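Hi all, long-time lurker, first post. I run a small reading group and we've been trying to get comfortable going from sequence to structure in the token notation. Rather than ask abstract questions, I figured I'd post a concrete chain and ask someone more experienced to write out its structure so we can walk through it together at our next meeting. Sequence below, copied exactly:
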Amino acid sequence: MSDIVQLEISDRIALLTLNRPDKLNALSYELIDRLMTLLDAIETDHAVGAVILTGAGERAFSAGADITQFSGSVRQGTPTALRDFVRRGQAMTARIEAFAKPIIVAVNGIAFGGGCEITEAAALAIASDRASFAKPEIALGMPPTFGGTQRLPRLAGRKRAMELLLTGDPFPPARALEIGLVNAVVPHEELLQAARALAYRILRHSPLAVGSVLAAVTRGLNMSIGEGLIVEAEQFARLVPSHDLGEGLAAWAARRPAVYTGR
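-- Answer (accepted) --
Happy to help. Here is the structure in token form:
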């Protein structure tokens, strides 16, 4: 069971791989729980500065929820379905969205349902040119439940999101790029390389500053501009006494590369 999500750490990057390729990396309860456990460990690991999340195999990032397992919860009634399925899935995407280190989703294939919702929640995403996206929950007689009714309209705009949510039709990576769901589309064989390159561009900066940007943006999106500006100021205030801010300013004055410590 520990291999249901694989973890590799190198060069300050944690590579997490959803590992149910025979099930198109469907999000079973066990997979979600294991992913959450690994995220907890990575967040406090000072050897990790960024995370790449992808799927095993050539066909899918994740085809979404494990429908067989979810159906069993539905048969047990509303309280069980809400507890085991909805709250678990929403906790996962909220954890990804609010993670203190940048998470880059490398979409290597199908990203349907919950797989698309993970992509929506992550700070950054790069898609293979073989990727395919969809919000197919409507075909099951239900809305998305891992945050898709809330995050996709914020990313894509209300009317574009409504079309995808109400039709359930698949859409290609070019459309995902157009609506802001992903940052880039690259040739399939270059996907992880591109994700790592993006991670390295972030890792050259202070981890404290990176965390502050993530926190300010994630919290501010759900606030008025005035409230968001207060959060922005709070994040800056936290860095004023830090080594990294002093080092960044000193390095700029001396026209030399900064050496950040994360303190």
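A couple of things your group might point at:
Strands lie at 5-10, 13-18, 50-55, 60-62, 103-107, 110-112, 124-128, 132-134, 184-186.
The two ends are 36 Å apart (CA to CA).
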